[in-house]
Amino acid sequence: MLQQLSFQQWLCCGAFLVLVLIPALAEVTDTNQLSKSADNLEDLTLEQLVNVKVTSVAKEQTDLFSSPAAISVVTADDIRRLGITSLPEALRLVPGMDVAQINANEWAVSARGFNGEFGRDLLVLVDGRTVYTPSSAGVFWNSQDVVMEDLDRIEVIRGPGATLWGANAVNGVINITSKSAKETQGLLVSSSVGSVDQDSATVRYGGELASNLYYRVYAKRSDVSDLNDSYEKSAGDAWNSTQGGFRSDWEPPSQNVLTLQGDYYYDEVGTPTDRVSLAPPSVLLITPTEYNQRGNILGRWTRNVSDSAQWTLQAYFDHVEQGTGFGTLEQNTYDIALQDRFSLGSWNDFVWGTGYRYQAVEDTPSFELTWTPETQHIRLFNIFGQDDIQVVPDRLHLILGNKFEDNSLVQWEVEPNGRLLWTPAENQSVWAAVSRAARTPSLFELDGQLNVAAFQPPSPSPPALATIYGAQNLTAEKLLAYEVGYRVAPTRNLSFDITGFYNVYENLIVPVANPTVIQTSPSPTHLLVSSTYMNAGSGDTYGVELSSQWRVLEYWRLTASYSWLGTRLTPVSDYPQSPRQQFQVRSYLNLPYHLQLNGAIYVVDRSTAPAPGTAFDDIPSYVRADLGLLWSPRQWLEVGIWGANLLQNQHVEFASQETPALTEIPRSVLAKVTVRF
């Protein structure tokens, strides 16, 4: 619980705010000397900030303040000010998100519970391309990297988004969007070096090939050092990556916009893994270096017929080849989607779309993990429609939609939603929603066999092997979600956003124990202690998420959030416990002489995390404080230095499912120089 945090930790939090941020503010006496930047959102008023345009809620541009969903936006300015170097670290800024670093190259990311190494209930998209992995039902975050300077925003919906985005958008949708080529013209060179954090170098150049035809190309190299585990030994989790790519946008004076972009990514990752064997020693920790390579190409054609009518045709190909610690995964994805938006009279704004996806997934077996069959062909067809009905113009909206999705793994799923938006005044909005969503079983849950542990019972018993089996008769997990939200801006410099939710889950996939038997294959003769995945879980989660923005002065802005989560899941022993409470506060302060002082405090309650086998590790509560200083003496030059985890030498945030050793996340320092021409 948050109340269990030590007095010293709370004292450090108070000292951080009182002794660093407020005295720094008091020294600012001449507002005309404050540094200004034309980049991103820092010069906007709070009224403009809370009305930033978002696209994830309705697949069209709407105001964040009047969007009938629990949506938050992480801006490029947030990332720049706080010196964020990875996508998971950027997601820490979102109220209600549970983000925990496992080791140097892995994170656990979830919303509203069910956190795990792969975040099975979140759908993640990068520029419209899904990066959800069907073999493990989640996202390999160390394979998702972007040029942070080219990132436009990250829109995060907490809660179901299945009607528009499809299966696996159960507890949330993360929509990562990069800037257009037109917005990234010229040469950018950026380099960072850190004590234990990410050392990286980025070169990006953008130009104009012809009238209204813009392009950019980039290359990026990153290196992260080994961290230490709880035994003060090297965790063997170093990570290095190389990537490059391009984007082109043709924006003629006509109504058409054409985009073509692609990326290639290669990395080598230290993967601490327990190797299981029936011969002594039963479990042996090794740290092999696995490789990941990924390539993709995407094309999108958008035609803006009018202010209220638009259609989009998008297609992409994505290739993944990845060492997983238990063999090799190869995945090819082909996807095509059409979307059309138009008005039906003056009262209806209708959007519909259809799409088809084909995925070929091949997993190479090992002793620990085998697949039957080794190659899977997944076909997915969907069609959806959603109507935004103005019941009372500019005051009351009713949004009704449904998605029909045919997945070759589980057949048809129906994912409807209904939302109500009431804006009694310009500075207030109230919304409510009822939604249904589904999570498709992973290929591992359907067809895998994982040997999770081996041990020697008391003599004269033979050795024992613990195994989890998949089951091909699994159905999709189901969610029925109820949400209500209220947003208010009582003054031009203060806003509040509060959301309450109640989620009911059915058909949750959990391992169910089988009778212990004696097996002779593989040799030697051994006891088989096994379980099989079944749709045997159920329960509910409920909670409150509160966030606020306050522009204290023209040059000082505070952002704070608090979330509370309750869970009642059956069987209790099969689920990790996400932090019950989380709190954060961020301060953005412009100083004289082109300086910016930015800081953040994160308070995270205790939790449990899945460990190897069927065990769970207790993760203590912790307080993290970050502080950074940016200096921009010229428009083309920016220098920054940041300290992270300043309150503790190191702390644990999550556990790996591949080894019992817990990795400590240390205090670190990062310096960065960015030059633009």
Topology diagram in text:
Elements: H1 7-26, H2 46-49, E1 53-54, E2 62-63, E3 70-75, H3 76-82, H4 87-91, E4 97-101, E5 107-111, E6 122-126, E7 129-130, E8 151-158, H5 162-165, E9 172-178, E10 186-194, E11 199-210, E12 213-224, E13 239-250, E14 256-270, E15 273-276, E16 283-286, E17 289-306, E18 309-323, E19 328-344, E20 348-363, E21 369-371, E22 375-392, E23 396-407, E24 411-414, E25 417-425, E26 428-439, H6 443-447, E27 448-455, E28 464-469, E29 477-491, E30 494-513, E31 517-519, E32 526-553, E33 556-570, E34 581-591, E35 595-604, E36 607-610, E37 616-619, E38 622-634, E39 637-644, E40 650-651, E41 665-666, E42 668-676
Task: Please describe what this structure looks like.
The relative contact order is 0.15. The protein has 6 helices and 42 strands. With 677 residues, the chain is mainly beta. The protein has one domain (2-676): Maltoporin, Chain A (Beta Barrel). Residues 1-41 have low confidence and may be disordered. The two termini are 50 Å apart.
